[in-house]
Inverse folding.
């Protein structure tokens, strides 16, 4: 694996690549979810490029930014084990040479005003700034992301359109990787205490319940049940919602004529967890 810290250096190297580039942007604290993306890119025959950069502009909570786990040496070891070809490990100046205040900002419309956007104002503007800049540097043919950050995947799809890169970079969304008890793998999981970790899979159980009760109960009833269960188990739920999987329009009830997604965000102590599950339309 070759490691680069400067944008010009990684660009020069990738300009000579014989394989199409498959790119996985990360903020480090890597886990099996990240390496599964690298594995998919390798299986697809791509030159696998991973970046690690904790982007300050997407944290609306300074404490969350301060506590975000950093494990660069362990991350490098994991990337080597996964067979990653290139690691881009920039500092803030390499990503934002003119400062974060001068970074290009994108308007994602309704996509950034619901769910995560409503709970974390400005978050997706920051995501758009950093991914837009990283795409300018890496210029990948394929961009690999995980379904766990479902809304972010939709935002990045819109970003590719806004940048005029939708014909140059293909977004590939890979399934969420889960622990044995169903908990979605996340860098933030390592901040959970042992008792909290034992409870964390309740979010997944709620998603399974939402999916399994299609056609038997109105969504409002299932939503209320999930909110009450989360509270009983010690969570502070932020939302339990059902949305159109393409537009993220919030839905008042199940609509089996379209592809839907159930989404949950909840805090367990000081750790904020998110997850989702797709609900496929009924065949006509």
């Amino acid at each position: 694996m070759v490691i680069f810290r400067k944008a010009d250096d990684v660009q020069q190297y990738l300009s000579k690549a014989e394989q199409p580039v498959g790119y996985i942007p990360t903020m480090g604290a890597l886990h099996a979810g990240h390496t599964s993306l690298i594995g998919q890119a390798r299986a697809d025959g791509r030159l696998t490029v991973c970046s690690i950069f904790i982007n300050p502009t997407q944290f609306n909570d300074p404490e969350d930014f301060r506590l975000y786990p950093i494990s660069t040496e362990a991350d490098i070891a994991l990337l080597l084990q996964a067979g990653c070809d290139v690691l881009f490990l920039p500092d803030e100046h390499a990503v934002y040479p003119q400062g974060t205040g001068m970074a290009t900002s994108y308007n994602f419309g309704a996509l950034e005003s619901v769910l995560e956007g409503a709970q974390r104002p400005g978050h997706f503007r920051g995501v758009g700034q950093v991914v837009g800049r990283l795409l300018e540097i890496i210029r990948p043919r394929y961009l690999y992301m995980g379904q766990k950050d479902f809304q972010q995947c939709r935002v990045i799809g819109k970003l590719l359109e806004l940048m005029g890169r939708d014909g140059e970079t293909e977004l590939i969304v890979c399934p969420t990787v889960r622990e044995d008890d169903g908990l979605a793998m996340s860098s933030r999981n390592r901040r959970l205490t042992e008792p909290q970790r034992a409870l964390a899979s309740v979010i997944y159980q709620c998603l399974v319940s939402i999916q399994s009760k299609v056609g038997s109960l109105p969504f409002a009833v299932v939503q209320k049940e999930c909110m009450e269960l989360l509270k009983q188990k010690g969570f502070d739920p932020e939302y339990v919602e059902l949305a159109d999987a393409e537009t993220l329009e919030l839905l008042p009830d199940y609509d089996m004529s379209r592809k839907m997604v159930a989404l949950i965000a909840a805090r367990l102590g000081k750790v904020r967890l998110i997850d989702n599950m797709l609900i496929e339309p009924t065949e006509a």
Remarks:
- Strands lie at 2-4, 21-26, 47-52, 86-88, 142-146, 170-174, 236-244, 260-268, 271-279.
- The two ends are 49 Å apart (CA to CA).
